[in-house]
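Example 3.2
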Amino acid sequence: MSRNLKTIAIRLTSASALAVTALTTVAISPAGASPLTDGISSTAQAENGNGACAHGGYVGGPNQSSSCRGGTTRTHAWCADFAGWVWARNGVTGLGTLDDRAASFMDYGKKYGTLSNTPHVGDAVVYNYNGSDYADHVAVVTGVSGNTVTITGGNQGGYPGHVSTYSTTKWSVGSSPWGQRISGYISPAGTSTPSYPNPASLPAGTLVKSPSGPDVKVMIAGSGVPVAASDVTPDKYDLSKVVTVDDTAFRALPSAPPAGTVVHDQAGGNARYVMIDDAALLIGAEDWTAAGYNNRADMGVPTAWLKAAAQRTVPTGIVVMDQTGTDPSRYVMVDGAALHISGAEWTEDKYNEQTLMGVPAQWLKAAIAKSPSNDNVLMDQSGTDPSRYAMLNGAAVPISGAEWTANGYDKRTLMGVPGDWLASTVAKKVANGSIVKDVSGADATVYVMAGGVAVPLTYADFTAFGYDKRPLEGAPGTWLKSAAAQAAPVDGTMLLSPDSNTVWQVTGGKKKAMTADQFGAGKLSFDDVVSVPTAFTAKIPTAS
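Structure, written as tokens:
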């Protein structure tokens, strides 16, 4: 500590001046441990290295003001705020006597008769008290052992100050271990169990925190949405108004607003989202009025949290529908994809017994166009089809009984899906250009998919065609053998071989040369052409 450790910016004047009784040096023995003193010591020392804006600012008694403004700037010399905060975290009574002055701790000691020359763990220690209304500094005694006293204080070091801990054998009143004269030790008058409000009782938009940790949340429709440090400035959150709430209730708060809540970025912007579980679904402009979202309360939420929520998918198993009612169908969510439920399946597979959630039509259209990822193993929800299928780039391919365990498919999560959707997905061809190989490793050949045919590639082909830059997907070996045995790609498949620049299109099991005017805007795309070895193209007859 040094003489630049000031506690107040404005000195207060008083007509009275009470001199502190001269105290003599005494021998110290370690103070007995207690929940109060141990708690004060651990609370204070846990803050080492923190600045004025830790926890959004230190605030102790009801007459103390926050050490921080706007989450970034200290408001004033804050050692008294820190000491008061440490006491308050441990339920010390009588904190209304304290204010932002270090001298207010001397006022506390005189009022409650706890001022002494003997340091105890948990005491406040005041420096350079003028006998009336001013002192240079106050800190907290966090250890007493033999003839050594350990002291932890806030606003120590150069501007803007930080929390630090020091030990000294020069602890007697009147001594100056760090260039400031010790004026006295003040013990807490007592302790009580702090009573904090239930966060659920507070208005939406209230910032809350637990007395046992630094995390801050904002109340939104009964939930506590986490506030990140990066949110404070752009979202204009005033951390000086954080309300300390019941710890158990704070921890139990849901981290996302209820399903159906409309939210937007607290920092601004026109985008609006609707909450479905913990996912935020973008509301399209055409949905805002048509779906009635404009009639719901529109809540601002922390920027960082909303960015993360907008990336989440609606949980698997949730049943959804178009909120506008334009599309009367029902869909079940599986791995981010919305799978159609037929009328018969709605009741037979008991989808009607699940909660049905309305979602934005624009978002739903995009979800319908998706397929579950390749990690998924599927079965018919009704059990009518006992087979198991692996997803492979938009298609469901069968898994044989032997492969179910031999290839580890039994270790993956098995998801039931609507039978009609499954049948249509089984009928699909694996996307053209997909690079696949036997998942068991029994066949080391790498194949490219072209119109339902698995075309074998040499290593030279694999690299020359650029397929080494694409994901290599494992496929059930039995299905792969069947795909490799197909005679010709399905009609419409476009092929290109390295022997010429001709693009061929398969029609009726034969190939036909295409012309340049067949490609372009609103026409066919070269991106859909599959590069295959010359030998594969050569064996397909040419159409006359």
